[in-house]
Amino acid sequence: MPPPNPNEEIRAAKSAVEREAYDRAKYGAAHRNEDTPLEEQGCQGQASIALYGVETALWDQLGEERRTLRARIDNDSRVVQATRDWSRCMQEAGFFYTSTDEIEAELFGRYAPFATRGDPYEVLTREEIEAMTAAELEAVVAELLVLSPEEQVELDALQEYELAVAAADYRCGLPLDDVRYEVTVELEQQFVDEHLATLEAIVASR
């Protein structure tokens, strides 16, 4: 078992207001994402700059091209046609989607009510949770995970649907996967050729 993290012990000893300030100092913006500049990511961001500053700056030069590479692949005429063929095949199997992303979005939405059932923060405040013992919190989570008979029927049907969609997607998606792989290799090689000097500089900076 790894030793306890001293930072977590320090954080646990603080009040709720102090913990919020501590987290902001350590991590920066509360809602940071992959596009948040390192300068705004608190102490961890500053440490990353110190360790990887040159490499990060070079990657930033390629930021827009990297973000649009996926779109270039998706919009390639070969991928567009293969996706239409995939959609037609899925419709013949009884599933009406125009893109593979729609499958994940639909299933995620339908599973969402079940995915949060074991989350005590959905029914309790942070203060109530922090005042509980580990055993009390485990009991709350266990109770939240119990499904009603109606909910169990709904979950079973959803899982059966997911398996059927996955089987159809696998069968219909094989030609699409081949086309997407071919296009991805081609466009990624173009990206490398166009930005070779910058990529070599990134490797040299490590």
In a nutshell, what does this entry contain?
The protein is mainly α and 206 residues long. Helix content is 75%, strand content 0%.
Can you describe what's shown?
There is one protein chain. This protein is an all-alpha fold. The protein has helices at 6-12, 16-27, 42-61, 63-75, 77-92, 100-115, 126-130, 134-144, 149-194, 196-204. Helix 2 packs parallel to helix 3 (42-61). The protein is flat and about 60 Å long.
List the helices and strands and how they pair.
Elements: H1 6-12, H2 16-27, H3 42-61, H4 63-75, H5 77-92, H6 100-115, H7 126-130, H8 134-144, H9 149-194, H10 196-204
Q: Main beta sheet, described?
A: none
The percent of residues in helical segments reads over 70%
Q: How confident overall, as mean pLDDT? A: 81
Percent of residues in beta strands: under 5%
Question: Which features would summarize this protein structure in a list?
Answer:
206 residues, mainly alpha
